[in-house]
Amino acid sequence: MIMTIFKKNWRDHWKTMFSWTLGIVFMSALELSVYPTLLKSGKGIDDFMKNFPESIQKVLHMQDYTSGPGFISTELFSLVLPMVFIAVGSSWGCSAVAEEEEKGTADLLFSMPISRQNILLGKMLSIVSSLCALGIITYLAISLGAPLVNLTINNIYLASATVLVASLGFFFSGAGLLLGTLIGKKGLALGMTSGLALLLSVVYSLAPLVNNLDPINKFNPFEWALAGRILFEGGQISNEVKLVLLSLALYLATIWVIKRKDIRTQ
Predict the structure, then answer these.
(1) In 3-state terms, what secondary structure has residue 63?
(2) What ranges in the chain are assigned the alpha helix state H?
(3) The overall pTM is greater than 0.70
(4) C-alpha separations of 211 from 33, 201, 206, 208 in Å
(5) Which residue range forms the structural domain that includes residue 226?
(6) The dihedral of CA 152, 19, 16, 201: what is its sign?
(7) pLDDT one-digit tens code per residue, 37-70
(8) Domains: count for the chain
(9) Using CA atoms, how far apart are residues 89 and 166, in angstroms rounded to an integer?
């Protein structure tokens, strides 16, 4: 029965997934197509980048910009891809229960001869699989496109960066699931999840400029997923573990809530 819920959730979202897939492939192809032009004026761009303060370079991920890893890190992994995975994870998470309540189908769904926990597990499985699928598409789009434009990148480090970014989406899907289940309103839950993502992103971006943010930033999922020279040196397994454990905690909290929730229809 869990797989039935899983398949239905995929059928409900396949158009959205197809759109995100096209978006990732298009963005990756577009950025990669710019790289040969960048190389032709590489020294001038490097000199220009070095004029920025080191803290600004860290904020914008400008280190070694004309190198393959530096270019991909700045153009895709610093902002664009994290926002894609956060958008997918949070939207699927917020709609899992709240959308059923708003449509008036929650009472029918949760009266089926299957536990609430298993219904939620089917929906969770579809969310995780969608993020994994987009992660694989991201990796393939960049790894297969890079040689075509003479961009050199370590595929193991690329895989590590992709897993971390996908895990960031995993975390925000958990936040969306919990908020959507607690509130029962998809729009409000999505707004709160998006606001949380924006706040944490701003803290992460400003930390190199504001020393007082350093203690807070140590507990920031953005710091765990994006900090460091991942495409140059690989990511830290400890950061991946922290993201996964925190995401699982949010998923388990949602299961606890759904078991005790008084389901209502709008």
Answers:
(1) coil
(2) 2-40, 42-50, 54-59, 68-72, 80-103, 106-109, 116-145, 155-183, 186-206, 214-217, 221-226, 230-233, 237-260
(3) yes
(4) 38, 16, 9, 7
(5) 2-260
(6) positive
(7) 887 766 666 666 666 666 666 666 666 778 899 8
(8) 1
(9) 9
